[in-house]
Amino acid sequence: MKKILIIISLIFMLSGCFDYIEVDDLLIISGILIDYEDDKFKITSQLIENDEKTVIKVVTTEGETIEECIAEISKLSNKDIFLSHLKVVVITDNIIKNNINFYDYFLREPKSKMNFYLYTVSNEDKDKIFNMNKKDDGSALFIKDMMDFNNKIFSTSTPTSFLDYMYKKLEVGLTPIYPNLTIKKNNDEDTLYLQDIIIYDDNQNKFKLDDKEGVFYNIITNNVEETVINIPCNENENNDNFSLNIYFIKSNFKWKNEVFNINTKITGKINSYSCKYDLTDNKTIEKLNNLASEYINENINNVVNIAKENKTDFIGIGNYIYKHDKNYFDFENDDWNNKLSNIKVKVNTNTTIKYIGEVRK
């Protein structure tokens, strides 16, 4: 928390004395939850207040516009709002299903740096999100750290910046995705948790990618820093498998002869191993490479089929085709998502196991 206040102080020192404001006269917003009910916005904000000591506060305001809600926070605290430190914006089902424009405020507001990350939350959990973790840096910074950790270790969720969201919303052949925040019980205590990726079709019907599907979505879209996948050994009677720690992934698309190709190169190392194949034999490594490639192909195809079945292009197939073959489809006048289900998709994965560690069998 001290680092935050030091950085803010430096900003004002470097910007000169014009319109100088004492740090103690600022109210820092680190997280915002946006809901919409009865023709009004309902904003729950996590605030960092610095008087004699730093305090985390949560305030809820209502208004016909987001501007009114933010202004009300300033009136309640008798302090100027500092929006540049905003890390997290959470939107509810009500916002998405009713197609409420929440983003225009952040695009127009000069104090918004637009470098925050976007999440969704169910109506059931929306009132709890920012009323947790008050003893430390508050829920907003906890959510940011939770996503950073997930992206580096598991890659079951997907960091979605505000600018990335706007790009997907405005581009043809692309559908936004939403990392989902939920509340999970841990030893009878509520804990913030990242679970599933939420997607809405053209009719605002909600569906999801579970954690496993989320990993393979991230493989397709190059959103994986590192992850571990468990791969069967083809010895189904014993449920034997090996775990592959993937630390390099490169996926690319190609549109040729009306076939959409997803090509993926993966490099990894074996973490655990219960197969019966002898790892000292070079042919075993080749076999494991093939098993991994087949397994990854199967799961990528599963994610593609989810997109087709829901007629919702969250992968970006249509956007790629639009940019490389503008004569193929009239995106302005025809329904791309209906066409999506008829697109032929071919998946090709090349896996290389570089390291088997101390594992021997």
Short description:
With 361 residues, the protein is an alpha/beta fold. It has 10 helices and 13 strands. The protein is globular and about 70 Å long.
Q: Could you characterize the architecture of this molecule?
A:
Helix content is 31%, strand content 33%. By secondary structure, the protein is α/β, with parallel strands linked by helices. Helix 7 packs across helix 8 (282-309). The termini are far apart. It has helices at 2-14, 66-77, 93-97, 104-108, 138-153, 162-170, 211-220, 282-309, 317-324, 336-340; strands spanning 26-37, 40-50, 54-63, 80-82, 88-92, 117-121, 178-186, 189-200, 206-209, 227-232, 241-256, 259-273, 344-355. The longest helix has 28 residues, at 282-309. The relative contact order is 0.10. The chain is globular and about 70 Å long. The chain has two domains: 24-209, no CATH class; 211-361, 2-Layer Sandwich (GMP Synthetase, Chain A, domain 3). The protein is built from ten helices and 13 strands. The strands form two sheets. Strands 1, 2, 3, 4, 5, 6, 7, 8 and 9 form a nine-stranded mixed β-sheet that branches. Strands 10-11-12-13 form a four-stranded mixed β-sheet. A hairpin with an 8-residue loop joins strand 10 and strand 11 (241-256).
